[in-house]
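Lab notebook, bench 4. The sequencing result for the construct came back, and we need a structural model before the next group meeting so we can plan mutations. Quick request posted to the team channel:

Model the 3D structure of this chain.
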Amino acid sequence: MSKAGAKLKSLKRVAERVTHTTKLKTNIPAGMAAAGPPLGPMLGQRAINIAAFCKDFNTKTAEMKEGVPLPCRISVNSDRSYDLTIHHPPATFFLKQAAGIQRGTMTPGREVAGMITLKHLYEIAQIKIQDPPNVMLTMQQMCEMLIGIARTCGIKVVRDLDATEYGQFLEERKVIVEEQRRDLQEKRDAKMLRTG
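Done. Here's the predicted structure in token form:
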């Protein structure tokens, strides 16, 4: 055997085995992981024990409010075990909760769906900066990112907010949202008539 061949053999022994894990990114409601679709098929494709995963996830999220969407990162190992990383709820969820609205605007930039104060924004930034993807960001960068997300949802960031004025704004906004829902339903119905 040549010297090069002997070196290659010794290198093969020294080099660690590389494991190619499959990663799964999904949003699962807190305490509501179930074996049915869409979660069950995703886990089944990666040969994870679905019942054990659901039980594990539900126990980890038992102290959280049920139904809150949680972004999860699941890496599957070669021995069918998995590493589950649960992040904080998405920024849009926090922003809509702080603004007291159910859904954002259909035309961002043109209409305002809700308002939050800088204090709300800072509190949300403190929570979101703890997530693994955001650990390297500064608080200023995190706040700027949240302002951009709020703008796309139609949420206006203000310095001060009067509770009575904002209550009136939300009442007026409910009427607008109902009109938009009716328009959407009419468009869907018209489309169904054309295709039917």
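The two ends are 75 Å apart (CA to CA).
Will bring this to the meeting.
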